[in-house]
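Request: Give me one sample?
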Amino acid sequence: MKTVQSIFRQPICLSNKLCFRSYSTKLQEAPSSWKAMLNIKYVYEHAGEIHQNCIDRNMHKVAETLPKIKNLYEELNIVRNRLAPQVREKNRITKSIKSSKDMQHRNSLVTEAKNIKTEIDSTEKIASDIQKKLYHYCLSLPNSTLPSVPIGSEDNAICVATIGEEKKLNNCTKDHLELSGNDIDLLSASETSGHAFCYVKGEVAELEMALINYAIDFSKLRGWSLVIPPTVVRTDVALACGFQPRDEQGEQIYQLEDQKESSSPKQCLIGTAEISLASLGYKQTFHDLKEKRVVGVSRSYRREAGARGRDTKGLYRLHEFTKVELFAWTHPSQSSRVFEDIVKLQTDFAQSLGLSARVLNMPTQELGAPAAQKYDIEAWMPSRANFGEISSTSNCLDYQSRRLLTRYKNPNDTGFVHTLNGTAAAIPRLIIALLENHQQLDGTVVLPQCLVPYLKKERLFVKTKNTCFR
């Protein structure tokens, strides 16, 4: 598979409006000071490779824009070639005006200057309109894809490693809802918030807090600095991070409406802490950068929680949940190593929890626009009779940094950083895996030793539960 290099090289400054893209071809605008860096010439010269990359990622509507990009680029060159002699003529006339001492001749030159300026303004307007369309189409293009990524749908994922041993449970296996009783209260939440929301109570709430703290401590011991990020960000910054909905209506993003300052960019709730962590680098330059790593914990919000059924039962797919996220900025020469470090952290974390899991090299259709490479870790979940995703790691190369204008400046070189993100702990799904895989015949759940210091107990659901709020 051919690798498409990054398309972001040169700045294109538009108006004070931001043109941002989802996977659709509908142009949207929002006030912003953000200006991405695009190399449209590269796109024109490598249109075939980029078109195939879009097809491999199942982004057919975006792929259809490549012929338009080529035609617009050629039109822009024609217009610029027409503009150049006009500018030269204007400069000649301006110089003549300055040197002319004859008033009548001077007035004639001034008239010529006004006429040529009108022609220039018209030509520049045409060039500007073409440039905006080019920007609009090029901004929708996905990142390059690394050669090791398999092509196709999720079925083509390649298992690159396994963790632990598959649990052998008898026919009395209960799912996480049966084990927890009313500690996972979907009914009350559905009445107050709607489908796919949840009250987590009692010992399951204690388990959630233990997992959060354990994931943070686990990451900090490996050099990740703790950050508690905001859960509300500007919509333009979220989209600059590449957090793009998979549908044309943007149904995965909770957008905040009725803002008093209508001239300001709209805001939205984050779908993952990756967005607000990446935004720490917005318009920043890191000096003497080798790598910078942070771990953040936040609530995450997804509008689309999936259809009801066994595969989305209980905690598996919620509109609101807690996630501990890893984010790194690196020198381009270090991103492959940092990617491996994140995957190693995730596999060690899953192993410490006594889970049976597999590491998958995800195919092109599962990457999302910003990622050049993505590994998922899936844990065995008895209630699903299948594996379920508990974490992922993505190497975004300089795709996000060129949109967020995040640079590095070292003594020997300078450029745009590479960004990587990974899940340290997707709390609800870890709860599913822990409860169901560590359950006992008497209905209790034996905790992995790493969590015992956090919960001050070795088993859950042993004694009669407190009936408060049940």
User: Anything to note?
Assistant: Residues 103-139 form the longest helix (37 residues).
